[in-house]
Every structure is written in structure tokens, then in C-alpha cells.
Amino acid sequence: MKNFLAKINNSKYFDGFMPVLAALSALAIGAVMLLFLGVNPLVAYRAMWVGAFGSSNALAETIVKAVPLLLIGLGICISFRAKVINIGGEGQMIIGALAATAFGLYVPEMPGWLVIAMAMVAGFFGGAFWGAIPGFLKAYFNVNEILSTVMMNAIAVQLMNFFLRGPMIDPNQAELLSKIPQTARLPEAYHLARWLPTRLHAGVIIAVVLAFVVYLLLFHTTLGYRIRAVGFNPDASRYGGIRVRRQVVIALLLSGAFAGLAGAIQIYGLNYRMITDGSPTGFTGSAGFNGIVTALFGGLHPLGAIPASFFFGALLVGANSMQRISQVPSAFVIALNGLVVIFVVSSALWQEARQRKRRIAEVRDDSPPPSEPDQATQDVSV
Amino acid sequence: MITDFFSATVLIGILASGIRLATPYLYASIGETFGQRSGVLNLGVEGQMLMGAFTAFYITLRTGNVWLGLLAAIGVGALMGLAMAFVSIHLRAVQGISGIGFYLFGLGMSDLLFQKLMGEVKTVSGFGAIEIPFLSSLPVVGEIFFRQNLLVYLAFLLVPVAWFVLNKTTLGLKIRAVGENPQAADTLGVSVAGIRYLTVTMGGVFSAIGGASLSIANLNVFQQNMTSGLGFIAVALVYFGGWKPFGVLFGALLFSMVNSLQLWMQILNVPIPSDFAVMMPYVLTIIVLVLTVGRVRGPSALTKPFIREG
User: Fold this and answer.
1) Which of A328, B66, B139, B229 minimizes the number of CB atoms within 10 Å of its CB?
2) pLDDT of A377 over the 50 cut
3) What average pLDDT does range A268-283 have in this prediction?
4) How many Å is the Cα radius of gyration of chain B?
5) Under a CB-based contact definition with an 8 Å cutoff, are residues B308 and B186 in contact?
6) Mean pLDDT for chain B?
7) Is B132 helix (H, G, I), strand (E, B) or coil?
8) pLDDT tens, B262-308?
9) Is B229 in contact with A280 (Cβ distance < 8 A)?
């Protein structure tokens, strides 16, 4: 029995449950926080559950929220695998959305499908551009990418505010006194298909397909191999003939591109126009940060990011109904996300220890029978 | 209009508010400098500032005593610093990412508490301006430097103190040793974990005071996400300042003067779109980061957890 439990504990598949454990811990601490605020955690969490999964419409909303998280999470998988920490998802998503919106608004009339396809490309390149700048600065000027991407976020927000208040403002709003900073609405023909009556749009298909593409890219192409090699050991990679600097730029560029695409899909699938309330997260809804949480939760694996994005989409949608029913502000979920990140990165040490144990167990299995196998396991666990 | 801009009153106004705006950066960046010199990158500064700002404001609002407010903020900052220290030192979590976790936690938590406990934006009477006798009546200089609130004075006093501690005391030597070569420090009997716990907790305390300097001294209000990126800039200033207290002071002043200039340009309706004016400090930070690189080298063990070998 003891051996059996040890086997489960050492098994590779148990690693997959780590994020679940982290999420449960975060929810448990969240429950304590709720108790302190005088809210019954069971009532609050139930409201969350119903809000996220209670009806087909709720489920659709959860998926709608998950789409940008998945796309940004995919980009994060790429950059974090190269040990490049991209905090700039917010800004990259904004620039991507700006580029895609401008394309749809100002391009001469074309068939809908063509405009949509080209707008997605515009969003992709917009985000790529915004990600490539800090990538270039890191690779060739050794500027810490965490700091530069944060600054790029702030700059992107101001650019958005400028364009939506000025050059790109809805002509109708420009005449009104209110001057709401928003663009004109995209024509019907340019909207992504929807499953009516819900708001679920075709963006979800794009996102899931891309998850598989990123999986292939990372694990079955030379480029992916190079990116991962650079993250694993830059010195050895350089010695092995990989141009490390170039991979760093590519990693951040691709990471930004996915965030930009997320922005484009948000416009063409959901909002049909770009609108801001002037605040940094007004357009993105913090998707740039939550995408990081999603990717970490999915073990930095593109396919793991699919269920992870669904989970966080549910948390975000559930938070709204929790706010309505038990008067817990939805900011609660932001704090929860923070706890999940802390727990996930904190469990890495544990995971490493178990990996080491596994490797030793493998060696033991291959070599001639050792005298005292139990002794060996105990030694390593110290 | 442009001539207006260069009048004496405006220039004095820009400089005086620049000095005031530098306060939160100074606290947070000096605290972060200690952490980084010992080898720990704390990216959760923004979250710690927000929690500090909220705690200080709320306690001051409830008790009417700014000192209690400040004390409570210090307590909360120490707790958050301790948590960050535990996660980076004992659990050896990747520091760049765990910091983002603490940022999100502080962002959400301060907002949650604000909505649950206050519900609306209120004001308190925080630390008032203290006019230094004689010095404050000096023309120009008096107005710029000597009619500020207590937390502003303390922030500027902190710089030479931090310099002294880092460079002229045994503790400072230990901190630097731990950040440069933890193995060697460990062999000489310095507790690497102990020093890092101390500096990271201290960093949390100073970040919280920086937040408090916004909510109960400079602005006397609390709003959701009121720091809006200030904590991240504070971390950038440590790089810019070459991990030295006076370098950080220079960076904080440069940055806040540009910010102050930008605010005054908006007040005076200088024909530059306000969005671009707001953008200026961030663009400047990036440029400055590009320019400083190669000039100085950071602590060798920065972001590397210490594992005793053998």
C-alpha cells in the first residue's frame, strides 16, 4: 500500500494536478477572506458556479471570456519557455485591436471574409510590433523586459486614448457633446459568426486551433526547439550555434502577436467597435495579466492552456454574478488570481524534487537490482 | 502662453510638485534597492504600495490619527514583504513571476477592501505641510523645498541614511556580500536567508510607506489602483540608479520632474495632446533604461535563489 501511494506521488501525471491543488488552496484562502468580510463563502462560491455554468448562456459567456485568455496565454507559453517574461500583454492586445479596427474602418469595401482575415493579420502584426520592441531592447541593449513591457503597456493605453478621442473617433460621437471615446461600429458583414442567441463567437475556434499550432511549433519544429533551448540554457545554446538574441526577439514578437490577435478577435467577435473608458484596463479587462495566470496554470503547455483559460473565464464570469448576489466586489477574483500565481510558482520546488526522485527511480529500475531500494528513496527525499 | 510657461511662479510650481511627486518613488525604490542588493528582485512593489495606501487611509479615516494609519501600513507592508521573502527564499519561486502574483493580490485586495469597507471616495486630513522655520521664508528655495509635509522630508532623509547603511556598516557589507557572492558569505558565517528576509521585509515596509505617502500625505484620498504603475516604475528606477541610493534619488527626481512638467503643461493648456504628455515619463523610462545599460552591473546573485552545496 505504501509503495503504491509512493508510486502515485512520484508519477508524472500527478504533476498535472499541481495547478488544481494551487487553485484549491487559493479558493480556500479566498473563503477565509470572505468570512472576514462577513460573507458566507459557500453562498458566494455557489453564486460564482451558477454564474459561470448555470445556463447555456452562462457557459457561452465563460467561453467568450476564455478566448482572449487562451490566446494571450499561448503567447506567454512561447515567451516564458524562452525565459522571457512578457508582462506586456495588455499593451500588445491594445495595439493589435487598434490595428485591426483601423483596418476594418478605413479599408475600401471588400468581401467580409477577406476583411476579417486581413484584420486578424493586422492585429497579429500590431501585437508583434509592440512585442518586438522590448524584445529588441532586451536582446541588443540588455534592457530588462519586465520593466520595458510594463512601460509599453502604459504607452499603448495613452495611444489608444489619443486615437479614440481624436483621429479614430466615431463621427457621430464627434458631433455630440459627450464625445465618448469610441470608434464607429464595424459593418455587419465584418462580424465573426455567432451562435445566437448567445455571444459565443467563432473566435473560440481560432483560439483552440492555434493552441494546437503552438503545440506543434514549440515541440515539433526547429524554431520551437531553439526557443526552448535558449530558455533552458542560453550559454549551451550559444555554444551549439543558436543565435540566442534572435530567439529572444522572436519569442517576444510571437508572444505579442498572439496578444494582438486576441485584441483583434475581441473587436470582430464581441464589441464590433473599440471603446475605452480612459483607464488602463478599460478595454482589455486585465486580459494581459490574466493570460499570464492562465499560461502558468496550464503548466506553460499550449494544450494545458485550453482548460486553464476555461477555468479562469469561469472565475471572471462567476465573479460578476457573485457581485450581484452576495455583494462581493469582483476585485475579489483579481486577488484570487494573484494567489493562484503565487501558489503555482511556489510549488515548482516540490515538483523539481519529485522529478529528481523519478529520475533516480528510473536509473534504479534499469540498473541491476540494488540491495535496499527503500533506503535510496529516503535519501533523496531529504 | 508659452511665455507664461516660463514665468517664475510656474517654474517654482513645477519644481515644488516635482519634489512632492518624487516621495513615493523614493520610499519604494530605496526599499527595493536593499532587496536587490541582497539578490532578491521584488516585483510586487506595486501591490505592496496599494495595500499600504489603502491601510494607511482607512485607519486614518477610522481613528483620525495619521500616525496610527502610517503604523498600520507599515505592519501590512511587513507582512507582504515577509510573504514575498518566504516564497523567494524558502520556496525558491521564480522571482519575476511571484512578484506579479503579489501585484495582482495587492491590486485586487485593496480594491476589494475599499469597496467593501468604504464604498466611495472620501478624504482625510493627512500629514500637513510643515514650514521649516527661517528656511521656508527664503525666496524660491523656501517654497520649493521647505514647505512640504513630513513624509516628503523623511523620504529625502532616507537617501543618505540608506547610503550610509549600505556602504559604511557591517550590515550593509553583509547585504552586498549576500547579493554578490552568497556562497562566500555563507562560508564566512553570514546567514544568507536571514539577510534576505530582512531586506525583502524592509522593502515591503518602505513600499507600503510609499503608498501611504500618497494616500495620507500628498493626495489625502484613496482610489482603486491609485498607484497605476508607479510601483513598477520604482523598480525601474533601481536599475536606472545603478543600485545606489543617490542614483535612485537622481532617477526619482528626473522622473517626477518630467511628470510634474507634464501635469503643469496640461493645466496651462500647452497645445500637446494630454495623452502624449502622460506618455512622456514612460517613454523617458525606456530611453533611460537603454542608456544606462552597460554603465553599471547589477548584483551578481540577483534573482538567483541560494542553495547551500554539499
Assistant:
1) B139
2) no
3) 87
4) 20
5) yes
6) 89
7) coil
8) 888 888 877 788 888 888 888 988 888 888 766 677 888 888 888 88
9) yes
- CB atoms B97 and A159 under 8 Å: no
What amino acid is encoded at B299 in this protein? P
Q: Look at the domain A35-361 and name its fold.
A: ABC transporter involved in vitamin B12 uptake, BtuC (1.10.3470)
Q: What size, in residues, is chain A? A: 382
One-letter amino acid at A59 equals L
Q: Which of A45-54, A319-328, B298-307 has the highest mean pLDDT?
A: A45-54
Output the pLDDT for position A379.
Answer: 41
- CA-CA distance, A185 to A200, in Å (whole number)? 19
> Longest Cα pair distance anywhere in chain A, in angstroms?
87
pTM of the predicted structure, to 2 decimals: 0.88
More confident residue, A4 or B129: B129
Q: Which residues of A touch B92 (CB under 8 A)?
A: 348-349
Burial class (CB in 10 A: 0-12, 13-18, 19+), A84: buried
Chain A neighbors of B232, CB-CB under 8 A: 147, 150-151
pLDDT at A380: 38
Inter-chain residue contact A341 with B97, CB threshold 8 Å: yes
- Of the segments A45-54, B91-100, B127-136, which one has the largest average pLDDT value? A45-54
3-state secondary structure chain A: CHHHHHHHHHCHHHHCCHHHHHHHHHHHHHHHHHHHCCCCHHHHHHHHHHHHHCCHHHHHHHHHHHHHHHHHHHHHHHHHHCCCCCCCHHHHHHHHHHHHHHHHHHCCCCCHHHHHHHHHHHHHHHHHHHHHHHHHHHHHHCCCHHHHHHHHHHHHHHHHHHHHHCCCCCHHHHHCCCCCCECCCCCHHHCCCECCCCCCECHHHHHHHHHHHHHHHHHHCHHHHHHHHHHHCHHHHHHCCCCHHHHHHHHHHHHHHHHHHHHHHHHHHHHCCCECCCCCCCCCCCHHHHHHHHHHHCCCCCCCHHHHHHHHHHHHHHHHHHHHHHCCCCHHHHHHHHHHHHHHHHCHHHHHHHHHHHHHHHHHHHCCCCCCHHHHHHHHHC
Give Dmax over CA atoms of chain B in angstroms.
71
